[in-house]
Design a protein that fits this description.
Number of helices: 14
Structural class: alpha+beta
Strand order of the largest sheet: 2-1-4-3
Radius of gyration: 31 Å
Strand content: 5-15%
Distance between the termini: 45 Å
Order of helices and strands: HHHHHHHHHHEEHEEHHH
Largest sheet: 4 strands, antiparallel
Shape: elongated
Oligomer: single chain
Number of strands: 4
Length: about 375
């Protein structure tokens, strides 16, 4: 590998580690209610990472195409992970968030009011889970055993486990959103829609109507601001609080009969961030478990016995027997190891008796009974 390519590959690995840290901090910042200035910085860094990985994917795909190895890159070198963790995030998560910031409005304003806002926000935030697939790209480069078979096998099974988890989360979240299944978001939405309907029936041009509205929303923390005919008639916080604590994805509005309500979406975002952090922890735990527990287990019970038998067949003076754990004695590899210990090694010893310098020359016919047994 050339120095330039090695530098680029190491840069990608560093970027993967950083984007995982950024993903964790972005959700943690929402949960911890950090100031909008900090969350805005994390939002833009996430956008930059998504652009970087989109360019990386397209570049790898281009070179794979011109070298006629597109299928190899996409399936065997996990190019599909590069795809899923780049373009969809740019289009569904960081891109819309940055676009809404530049346009100075909430992400979903102008679509269908509060009835659809929560579904859109949830879909956008859940897409962030795709970034966790990047863990697999790091895992593929970790070498914790000398066995290529163990490394490939463990990388494959960890890829299946993490991918199934991530795709299941995405699919079930989107399905439940489409079928209006009962959830925290749906209950939050129902309360806000009820407020809109109640406000539309009040005569807000009259002081008594505005007083009735004030009473109705006193215990509703979701209401941030109420406007009637372009005039603000209720505000929960002052302008300084709105500027420091709220970003474009932190609020949405609904309108009925000239009454416009601005609703606080931070509880929805916090709930989704809480779930994202749980997914993050589960995925990291899965990968670490495969790396620290299953990978050594596979090496000891599969690749190490094969390694001993291979050396015994290739090296004249290597006569180490395979240790067969009683609990795994019925495994195919240890059944073969038993034949190696009890049949092949004695045959090898007899062939070398009387001439220590003679090169061992065992043909396939000499051990065909071992293989056919």
């Amino acid at each position: 590998m050339s120095r330039t390519r090695a530098f680029l590959e190491n840069s990608v690995i560093i970027a993967i580690v950083l984007v995982l840290v950024q993903t964790f901090l972005e959700d943690f910042a929402v949960l911890a209610e950090w100031d909008w200035a900090v969350r805005r910085f994390l939002m833009f860094t996430g956008f930059a990472f998504d652009i970087f990985f989109t360019i990386e994917f397209l570049t790898r795909l281009y070179f794979a195409f011109i070298n006629r190895r597109t299928g190899t890159y996409f399936w065997y070198e996990r190019g599909w992970i590069d795809l899923m963790a780049s373009i969809p995030l740019l289009l569904l998560s960081s891109g819309p968030a940055v676009l809404s910031y530049w346009s100075g409005s909430a992400t979903v304003i102008g679509f269908a009011g509060i009835l659809n806002v929560l579904k859109v926000v949830k879909a956008i935030r859940i897409a962030r889970v795709l970034r966790l697939l990047r863990v697999l790209k790091i895992f593929a480069r970790i070498r914790n055993t000398d066995s290529a078979m163990a490394q490939r096998h463990v990388a494959k099974i960890s890829t299946v486990a993490v991918t199934v988890l991530v795709t299941s989360v995405l699919v079930f979240t989107l399905v439940f959103a489409l079928v209006d299944a009962p959830s925290f978001e749906s209950r939050y939405q129902d309360r806000n829609v009820a407020l809109l309907e109640e406000a539309s029936e009040l005569n807000l041009a009259d002081a008594s109507g505005r007083a009735a509205l004030q009473t109705a929303i006193e215990d509703e923390d979701s209401v941030l601001l109420v406007q009637y005919e372009g005039r603000t008639i209720y505000s929960r916080y002052d302008n300084g609080m709105f500027e420091s604590a709220f970003g474009p994805t932190d609020y949405a509005f609904g309108e009925a009969q000239g009454v416009r309500f601005f609703f606080d979406l931070r509880p929805i975002n916090q709930e989704q961030s809480r779930m994202n952090l749980i997914y993050f922890g589960v995925i990291v735990f899965i990968v670490v478990a495969f790396l620290l527990y299953y990978s050594p287990h596979f090496a000891l019970t599969v690749s190490d016995p094969i390694h001993i038998m291979r050396r015994g067949m290739n090296e004249k003076g290597y006569n180490l027997e395979v240790r067969i754990p009683p609990m795994f004695a019925d495994d195919e590899v240890y059944r073969l190891a038993k034949l190696y210990n009890e049949v092949y090694l004695p045959l090898k010893d007899r062939s070398s008796v009387g001439d220590d310098t003679e090169v061992l020359d065992l043909k396939l016919d000499d051990i065909k009974d071992i293989l056919n047994e």
